[in-house]
Design goal:
single chain; 230 residues; alpha+beta; 4 strands; 70% helix; rod-shaped
Length: 230
Amino acid sequence: MSTATPEKQTGKTVSVGVQELIEKLRNQGVDSGRQEAGKIISDAEAKAAELIADAEKRASAIVGKAREEADFITRAGKEALQLAERNAILELKDYLLEKFSDQIRAVVSHSMEGDKLLEGMILEVAGQNNLRGENNIEVILPRKVIGVDELRDKPELLKAGGLLEFAMKRASEMLQDGVTFTVGGAGQSGIAFRLKDKDIQVELTDEAVAAVLLKHLQPRFRALLEGIIK
């Protein structure tokens, strides 16, 4: 048989209600905290995933741009090397062609000082088979070949061989056809032919002869350099 008074019974009931309330609030707080923590974790994970995706996107863009720049540099380098190679080949061809032309000019200039070549040129141009019908041809011989300065000091050389002998011998034969010989100025390097009646003069200088030869030889030499002719 209970001996608790009504007051005590009421106080015990209130204490149990408070304890239940506290327990309920604590459970609600724990649940709320768990939900909030779960939300924070979920948000953090979503943010992290977003940051990772953005970082990967940026990294991919950087790598793509770097590859484009690398490809551009590689392509530009190859094109620059090809251009430099092409220019070097062109410059080498021009250099060789210039040297070839210089050698031709030197050979012609040296040959033009030879009596035999000059004799041949005179016979070819002013011989009986050429310039037919022209009766007043003057052949102007180069001063350095005929040796005018030496003749002034040594007149005995007048009857020496070479072009001078040829000029004197041929002159006597050609005079009948109106061909005469004179000596040009100090700067004359080749032979000049003058049609006195027509006031026409053609000079076969070493430069003119070399120019004619090079007109035909240069294209062939360039064709050899380019491999067209083997």
